[in-house]
Amino acid sequence: MSVAVDSKLDPRVNCYRDDLAASYLEGKVDSRRFVMGRQAQVVQCGAPLLRNPSADSPQDSQLLAGETVQVYDEAGGYSWLQSEFDGYVGYVRTSALRDEVTEATDCVSVLRSFLYPEPDIKTPPIATLNMAAQVTVTDQYQRFSLLSTGGWIYSDHLMTIDAHEPDFVATALRFLEMPYLWGGKGNMGIDCSGLVQVSLARSGRACPRDTYMQAKTLGIEIPGEDGNYPMRRGDLIYWPGHVAIVLDQETVVHASGHHMLVTIEPWRDVDERVRIETGGKGIEVLRRVPQSNG
Hints:
Layout (H helix, E strand, L loop, with lengths): L20 E2 L11 E2 L2 E5 L4 E4 L8 E5 L4 E8 L2 E6 L5 E5 L3 E2 L7 E3 L3 E5 L10 E4 L3 E2 L1 E5 L2 E4 L4 E3 L3 E3 L7 H6 L18 H11 L8 H7 L2 E3 L13 E4 L2 E5 L4 E6 L4 E6 H11 L7 E4 L6
Parallel strand pairs: 1-2
Antiparallel strand pairs: 3-6, 3-9, 4-5, 6-7, 7-8, 10-13, 10-17, 11-12, 11-16, 14-15, 15-16, 18-23, 19-20, 19-23, 20-21, 21-22
């Protein structure tokens, strides 16, 4: 008896290829072989999550230091994996991972912070960690913390892993003027859905990676039509392939591919531009997330 399979499973958040698939998808997708994953941890902050295992592949997202993943295949210096943070699937350079997994004690609370070989700001930094990266502190010396992966970070740039910033809009505003980067999550740049995801993560709320995922699942949908919506601070406005965060009834903040940076704009200007770019399509949905994680 053949097993019915679902050909509509989203490959961005379901780990399957024609030749290989995650064991949890057996009976749900067609694949020649099903395997169990192996847990690993990301050690490179802003590790590109690629669509294909090649240096010239598009970057669909990034993995932050401390994230855990399930690895299903390794070949040619790349690992095919699924993030345990948001379920995203892709290829990452194997050198960005380690097999040893440690439980995070803290996360980076500033936009970015340097990692030093010694607890001394005059030593040349060995790496950069950005907001929401998770770390394990093993020792402290004066105003520095030693990490399990090696290196010292300025202690005031950390918050305990269970500490949150309740105002995710204020967090998003801290990214103003950061360059737009497709698939970016804040190391060297950030994209529109990444800005929403990272900001909500700092407030302790889970958030899917892409706009089409967020537009279907985040918070509750607020009815409206033809651009007329009862917007309030913290609402999320979704256009085709884009999202902006409402500051008030007239302005939004977003990572803009038009301006190539995180910027504040009159939302009517954004809506007018998007309508032109998409042949008349306007807002797809307005979603409202809780003001706190309580």
